[in-house]
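Give me structure tokens for this 135-residue protein.
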Amino acid sequence: MSKAKKFMYINRHAPCGTVYAVEGLEVVLIGAAFEQDVCMAFVGDGVFQLKQDQDTADTGMKNFSPAYRALGDYEVNRLYVERESLEERGLTEDDLMPLTWEDEDDDWAEKPSIHIVDRAQLSDLIEEQDILLNF
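Here you go.
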């Protein structure tokens, strides 16, 4: 049997103004439902997708950010956020949603899904992937 391919979904767009963010999340959930080895990266304006307390009332778009809480249920627990992108947008890790997953191998302990990495670390993670999808 062949080794499962590793997929990274790279999120580069803000959550509002285009369909990239919501469609990217939908594709991740579909892939994870089919047991793909999935991780996500958030760079550039994509870091705004994970910002807490999003208000989309003025955009005419539905606030889909609560759906990120379902990622742990789909075993998507590696969300890499580029530190430099956060800093360039005046954000810190404290501005992000507290997303977690339950580790069944550790007595169902809740663990953080978001991992802050610098550009060099993210570059290394990208190199490890078999398939990259940009949204």
